[in-house]
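Worked example 3. Consider a protein that binds ISJ.
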Amino acid sequence: MCARSALPDVGPAVAGVLDAAASPFADAVVWAQGDVAWRGTGGWTVLLTGRDRLRRLSALWQAAVAGRPDPAAPVRGWISSTFADDSAEPAVLRVPERLARADADGVRGIEQHADGAALAAAAAADPDARLLTGEDFPLPADTAEHAWDDVGYAAGVREVLERLARHGDGAGREPLEKVVISRTLTVPAEDADLWRAVEALRADYPQTWVFAVGGLVGATPEILATRHAGEVSSRVLAGSLPRGATAAEDAALRARLAADERLGHEHRWAARSVVDALAPVVELEDADPAPTVLTLPNVHHLATAVRGRLRDGGGTVLDVVAALHPTAAVGGTPREAAVRLIAEVEPVDRGRYAGPVGWMDETGDGVIALALRCGQQVSGGIRLHAGGGMVPGAVPEEEVVEVGVKLQPMRRALGLR
Ligand SMILES: C=C(O[C@@H]1C=C(C(=O)O)C=C[C@H]1O)C(=O)O
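Given these inputs, the predicted complex is written out as structure tokens:
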């Protein structure tokens, strides 16, 4: 049975999650949306490298929990995978032993009775998976010396625009329609700063999903896939403008975003990539859903909701994500050519930025977001990431501003200007 008990060490300062100082930040799991927040500690961590990470994580999870789903005590696992399958950084599966779930009615403690031996066996069966035993989460080394500054990022944008133009002229080897390019910024941060950042993100960005898994922390507005009782949904964002200073400015920016041809084009590639990838596994409600404008405290986005019913054999929420990732919201179109160009041009491995992050239960249901507006804890600090989609006609100076706007949530949460 699921043991539920009051947790004596829960205080209002951490908004209903377990005592924040009790474990290293990178060992904890945080997942919060609106009023509901989860925090997990202890338990098991599997790191996984090599090809086809999402499907292997899904298989590993199913092997570890298969045959023993217990409706009275369902076990949840959190995953955070990489943008690229050949990233030097590993994908992460975290199965906390103790969870605290906080909502408007209070806080509940949940002990997860995962089968550690089954998890260890499932990890041992995959030659590129490793179960951490008795060690802190291994943080990646910092890469600040390779990172682009504003000038470097603008040059990177220009290079991508040249490649897009060359392909447009028929001079490239293959067509290239859209590429999402990103930059990093490393700032100093201790565990206590990151815990405070979690609370600040929750307070300032209530429409987003706030997460921390293996030291990757952020507040994302984008959902790759949810799976619940046979229903699947996805929320695609692409095409952005900064917030205005006044309500009138904001109204004008929203109207411009809804009407702008280039931004609409950029959005359509992203929405199409999700619709096309979902169609074989999901019976879609609408094969051509129209975008709306989503307004966040720092930015306006074009947003498309995609919904449908999972077809037989569609797999777990992670299998659905495996069919989607990377979407053209973070990769580009066509996918393989864009991902190759990103690897060639960007100076820093994206690691788990722009990768799937979220949870999954024993039945394969769950919520998997896209890790944006986030940073990866590194030794001595945090490496923030942000990017933007490029289609012909993009203006490098505007892209520098946009990526700065997308870095804002984490900078502010860390107390930086
Ligand atoms: C790449 C990022 O965001 C993505 C790119 C967007 C764009 O180019 O307009 C908008 C939302 C996201 O899908 C990021 O936040 O780092």
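Take a moment to read the result before moving on. The chain has one domain: 4-413. The first strand starts at residue 4 and ends at 5.
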